[in-house]
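for ur thesis appendix - Class I SAM-dependent methyltransferase. copy paste whatever u need, i formatted it the way the template wanted (i think)
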Amino acid sequence: MYETLKAFVERPAPFSAYTTPDLWTDEYVSARMLEFHLDPACDLASRRPEAIDALVKWLETHVGLAGKKVTDLGCGPGLYAERMAMHGARITGFDFSQRSLAHARRQAGAKKLAIEYQLGDYLKDALPEGQNLVTLIYCDYCVLSPTQRAALLKRIHAMLRPGGHFLFDVASRPEFGQVEEGFVCERRLMNGFWAEGDYFGFKITHRYEDQYLALDRYQIVEPKRTREIYNWLQYFMPDEIDAELGAAGFETAEVFDISSGGKWITKSAPFGVLARKK
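the 3d part is after this line
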């Protein structure tokens, strides 16, 4: 046990493990994630309804949605996809959570919305082509390594028609100042979030100062299995995003405050980016 814990608390190399799919494909954890998605008073898995409404309205004003072919990557239970479809967009939702997609399909059927939901991993599976707009919302971009981000941008570039747009949001550099290193050990860590039965949960938070990168690393010890989860989060400034977009054949059309839709100023809050395919 000593050697196991010693290895756990050591600082791993940046992006040395990628476990994001585990949050959305584990039978028990995916159910908890869906609960968080659907809780209108919770910001842990998706923004609140009023914030989602505001962003879709911003898109309608700045890009236009009626008749547009739109793919929402990491669509989850369809919270943005439904609203964009109501504005007349022809929506494809893409996600690797069976549970979230099942909910999204039920909702689309009940609301008579013609949304196509596809199961897949946007880092490796075939993606729709000929799109006018691609969205990647709730800082999904920030959990990816530089290599993954570059590959994904090329994939999104190939999805879009000339002049098509890519909208996403990222954690900002000032937010990194709020990250505190620490270690926690609790029985049924996070009020039983990680497993239905009894378990011990360990969490350690690392800061990578020179890269503005944070890691929440979890070890979940159950009677019959032990698993680790790595939650990376990269923090950006607009010029860094502009450079990554430029290398992939995009130009930045607008940087904006994701919560208000207004101009983003340097503050401790995420910002949205609207990019255009050159």
